[in-house]
Amino acid sequence: MIIQLTRTTTGEISTALLRARRSAGSPAMGMVLTLLVVCDEKEYESALQAAMEAGREHPARILLVVRAAGRVAALDAEVRIGEGTPGEVVVIRMRGPLAAHPASVVRPLLLPDSPVVIWWPGKTPANLAEDELAGLAQRRVTDAAAVKRPIVELKLRAETYHPGDTDLSWTRLTRWRALLAAALDQYPARIQAAAVEAERGSPSADLLAAWLQSCLKVKVTHKTTAGPGLTAVRMTTAAGDIAITRPDGLLASYAVPGQPERLVALKRRETTDLITEELRRMDADEVYAHALLALQDYTKTAPAPQTAAAKRATAKTASARKSTAKRTTAAKKAAPARRTTKTASKRPTTRRSAAKKAASAAEAATQPTAEQAAADQAVDQVDQVVEQPTSHVAEQPAEQTAEQAPANEGTN
Fold first, then answer.
1. Is residue 116 part of a domain?
2. Is 181 strand, coil or helix?
3. For residue 61, how far is the Cα from the chain centroid?
């Protein structure tokens, strides 16, 4: 039975539930919990299908809250009971200002004295502890794989973790963790290193790598593959690798040192199976909390996984750096050669300058100075005087005799 309600209230929705239950011939409620699903219109169909499939194992009242934009506050509802519907399903559509306060509409519709589980199949609040609807539930289920930046989402979940929180990225690892634990029980060797291989942007791979590194106390590397999802986990021992590989998303290859390889069913699970698993427990998942804390430390120390394109880009960068280094080294080697050439070309000029200076000095040494010339001239004059006295003196008495003769005659 499907009952459509437009422009309704929570009281009318409760009355419609009671009327539909009586019409279906089941006035007593046989449900064990309330599953609250918060989604957008585009996620409505898939979320409703997954919740109804999970309700076949866990009879529940499913409250599907669909929030839409609008200026006018409006509340529409759709009640489904019977005809293959497990438990009770109420689709609540809120518009306008009413969508900002959904707890006032949902609270009267919760099953009394039963646990409440809330699930966000898409976008989640930044802080679950401060969300109105999250405060109504004992278990809070998110899905980091459904958002654009899954690793950022997981870090946010780690910062705002509260007992009862869990993520479907961790639920996807249940069978992987079981196989890894069985492998270590079967082959209890000391693990030296480990590696997790998965497609790019897989939050499950980040959680698994962080959890393994925290438990094994060894370095765990994260390698990027084409997928789908998680493709391999390898743990290195002294005798060889303990490896679980799943390249096709269906069958896994399980290998330990010294034993033949075996095939194990490890199919990727649908969202319905994940929600069904999470509804089996109402207590806090302490292992998930430990993995979240380990993820914070792992992302601080581990390098980002490299894709093939990133590796090629890194190789090109390294090649360019080597080429630049070679050119720089060649330029440095050429620089001394040029300086040597310049020095060699300058040497003849230097030698010619020295020769000119020596010639000038020799010429200066051979040419007399002004004082020396004056002294030489004086010496020459002296020499001339020394050479002239004999003739001069010899002539002078003759003259004097000739002159003195008349004088003598006058006196006679």
1. yes
2. helix
3. 43
> What is the number of domains present in the chain?
2
Those residues whose C-beta lies under 8 Å from the C-beta of residue 212, and which sit 6 or more positions away, are 180, 194, 196, 220, 233, 235
Q: What is the pTM of this model?
A: 0.71
CA distance 325 to 67: 60
Q: Please say whether the beta carbons of 60 and 35 come within 8 A.
A: yes
Which range of residues forms the domain containing residue 287? 174-271+281-310
pLDDT tens profile 366-385: 444 444 555 455 435 434 43
d(CA 289, CA 168): 13
User: Does some domain include residue 289?
Assistant: yes
Helix (H) or strand (E) holding 223: strand 220-225
Burial 144-183 (b: 16+ CB within 10 A, else e): bbbbeebbebbbbbbeebeebbbbbbbbbbeebbebbeeb
What span, in angstroms and rounded, lies between the C-alpha atoms of 63 and 35?
6
Furthest-apart CA atoms within the chain: distance in Å: 207
Residue 345 domain-assigned? no
pLDDT tens digits for range 230-255:
999 999 999 999 999 999 989 999 99
**Structural domain contains residue 228:** yes
